[in-house]
Design brief:
3 domains, 18 helices
Length: 394
């Protein structure tokens, strides 16, 4: 939204600049066919002011995307700091490996051992966060005894994003030998035209990819540490991951949804709830289906035996397999007060295409006694049952 506003303002300012040149400038056609304009002395002050305004917009077009990328990494760093603080509070023994020391004179200045511990945690986290993003993972893998980068295909992208951010902060975006060394070391495939000394930028596509990458890294990292440090709290972890992936599915961020749901259903982590597992499989199939990956969606459905599942899951399978007659029968069996309510029929992406069929519309009217009307997004936001996953939380 910000870039659209700046871009429109830039175009208006460029139009203003060009109009001034054409109206006030004295045009000369050079021998090579190019044009030049001479500004009269009495118009020079106005010209300089317009030229300065245009230059400001050009700089804004360049610098605002850079600031967005830097801000994105800033928020990730803050998240990582909170995550590590929580890890130390959950497992205080992790501080045993810390190299930080307190003199007795410093220790007695604290009102309690808890206050001293909090101080030590802050210092330990601060030391970690001040290092490079690659070093963060080295430290966490060593301290938590985990291989956090195993099968993490997004890792090279993460390294390039964080290294590019460093260029903007420290080198005005100019590619350095350090940037190339880090990228080469971690398998980053750079564009061939990028060379040392070249000034890098940030396109809309690049910032979108960066957002998706940081979200994936952040969610996966948080859940791996959560499950490692609190193995008795898997139920909350499963529900939290389910809610996060459902939100991405509703936003139609299918690539990210698929990545995180594959992480949820295929990684060797203990599932606390068969219900959560079923929801994740269904939502993964939905994301695949709307990504033009129908074969994969059907394979995902076939990977599970749905014969003993609840009717809402059988309904989902029937809808995704486009067995509309079976779906109608299951809708009637569920009824108007079953686990799939009118809100779910309106909001669950599962029904995105099915809602447009005559079978669905007729059955919905039969069940609820009214025509189906797709609610506005604002209306759904005010309802506690806007997600099917709400039932799981209950």
């Amino acid at each position: 939204m910000t870039m659209k506003t700046v871009s429109n303002a830039f175009l208006n300012e460029r139009k203003r600049f060009n109009n001034f040149i054409k109206m006030k400038g004295i045009r000369t056609v050079e021998k090579d066919g190019s044009e030049s304009y001479e500004i009269k002395h009495e118009d020079l002050v106005t010209f300089k002011r317009i030229d300065k305004d245009l230059t400001s917009y050009i700089l804004a077009m360049k610098n605002i995307p850079r600031s967005f990328l830097c801000s994105l990494i800033h928020h990730y760093d803050a998240y990582l700091g909170r995550l590590l603080r929580m890890a130390f509070f959950v497992k205080p023994e992790l501080l045993n490996a810390s190299q930080k020391q307190l003199l007795f004179t410093d220790l007695v200045a604290f009102p309690s051992i808890e206050a001293a511990r909090e101080y030590m945690i802050e210092k330990e986290v601060e030391t970690v966060i001040r290092d490079s993003h690659v070093a963060h993972f080295d430290w966490m893998e060593n301290r938590f005894k985990l291989n956090l980068r195993k099968e993490l295909s997004i890792w090279p992208k993460f390294v390039e994003i964080t290294e590019r951010r460093n260029l903007f902060v420290h080198c005005d975006g100019v590619a350095s030998s350090q940037y190339f060394t880090m990228c080469q070391k971690h398998g980053v495939k750079l564009e061939k035209q990028i060379k040392v000394g070249e000034e890098l930028g940030v396109t809309p596509d690049y910032i979108q990819q960066a957002v998706e990458c940081i979200l994936e890294i952040g969610v996966k990292l948080g859940h791996v540490l959560w499950r490692k440090l609190q193995p008795d709290n898997l139920s909350d972890a499963d529900i939290a991951l389910h809610h996060a992936t459902y939100d991405f599915l509703v936003e139609e961020r299918y690539a990210l949804t698929k990545t995180l749901l594959n992480f949820a259903v295929k990684t060797p982590i203990i599932k606390s709830s068969e219900e959560i597992k079923c929801f994740n499989l269904i939502n993964l199939a939905i994301a695949q289906n709307f990504s033009a990956e129908r074969t994969q969606a059907l394979a995902t459905l076939k990977s599970h035996d749905w014969s003993a599942s609840e009717d809402r899951f059988k309904l989902a399978v029937a809808v995704l397999e486009r067995r509309h007659d079976d779906a109608v029968l299951i809708m009637k069996r569920i009824g108007s007060k079953g686990p799939v309510t009118r809100v779910e029929y309106s909001s669950w992406p599962l029904f995105k295409d099915f809602r447009n069929t005559t079978e669905f519309l007729a059955t919905y009217k039969e069940l609820f006694g009214e025509e189906f009307i797709l609610p506005k997004v604002d209306d759904l936001e005010d309802k506690e049952e806007k997600k099917v996953s709400t039932k799981v939380a209950e």
